[in-house]
Design brief:
Layout lengths: L2 H15 L6 H7 L1 H10 L9 H7 L2 H4 L19 H10 L13 H20 L2 H21 L10 H14 L6 H12 L22 H6 L7
Length: 225
């Protein structure tokens, strides 16, 4: 068995049994072979079961059912700084950080989403350094959308609101398959009705130095250090 076969088995079981929602224990009961393969082989950088990877491979309509249940009061997150933990992710993907401003193919989009989810999870865990890093990277991504995606032209001039929305998405994301897709849809819907209030360009100079925004884009590979 491989991951593709395990995913197909789960998708078939969900369609056949039609649960209102499902979760790891449901998979353990309904797809024992797939569950065992995932537990034994699908691990993240910290040797934990990578359910984010599993969910991202499921059919879209099945992703929507993942872990849907009554909201419980979440435990307060204890904030901490751990650069070594953050570097485990950044060192692994340092040659792929360009995907936050340029995605030439579907593989680049998948890698960008993978990096985003991993950093979001560290941020949600309480690592403030991971939170700072993912906010920087996602701002590059959203700036690119604002510059080149007509659906985002309404966001021009609303940098503070953009930053607030990015931060909210990082905090609220659970298991929706694609974080980048979740961020895109959230901003697309939230931006309806907004009127651009100023010109936005990648040729503009940043307030804190003499570099243009595009110059920072070109140096994105240095963000991991």
């Amino acid at each position: 068995m491989d991951l593709n076969q395990a995913i197909k088995n789960i998708d078939r079981s969900v369609v056949k049994r039609n649960p209102l929602s499902f979760h790891p224990n449901w998979i353990k009961r309904s797809c024992k072979v797939s569950y065992k393969y995932i537990v034994d082989n699908i691990k993240d950088e910290f040797n934990q079961i990578d359910w984010d990877l599993v969910v991202s491979q499921l059919q879209r309509y099945n992703q929507r059912l993942w872990l849907k249940k009554k909201k419980r009061k979440r435990k307060a997150v204890v904030l901490y700084k751990n650069k070594e933990e953050l570097d485990v992710i950044l060192n692994k993907y340092k040659d792929k950080l360009y995907t936050f401003i340029a995605r030439d193919n579907n593989d680049d989009k998948l890698v960008c989403d993978c990096i985003s989810i991993k950093l979001v999870r560290l941020s949600q865990k309480g690592n403030t350094l991971a939170n700072d890093k993912i906010l920087v990277l996602l701002k590059y991504l959203v700036d690119y959308w604002v510059e080149f995606d007509k659906s985002f032209s309404c966001w021009k001039g609303y940098n503070d609101i953009i930053n607030d929305n990015i931060g909210a998405c990082v905090r609220r994301f659970r298991y929706a398959g694609s974080f980048v897709g979740y961020l895109y849809r959230t901003l697309e819907y939230s931006g309806r009705g907004l009127t651009p209030i100023e010109k936005f360009s990648l040729d503009e100079f940043l307030l804190d130095n003499n570099k243009r925004k595009i110059d920072n884009f070109n140096n994105i590979q240095n963000l991991w250090s």
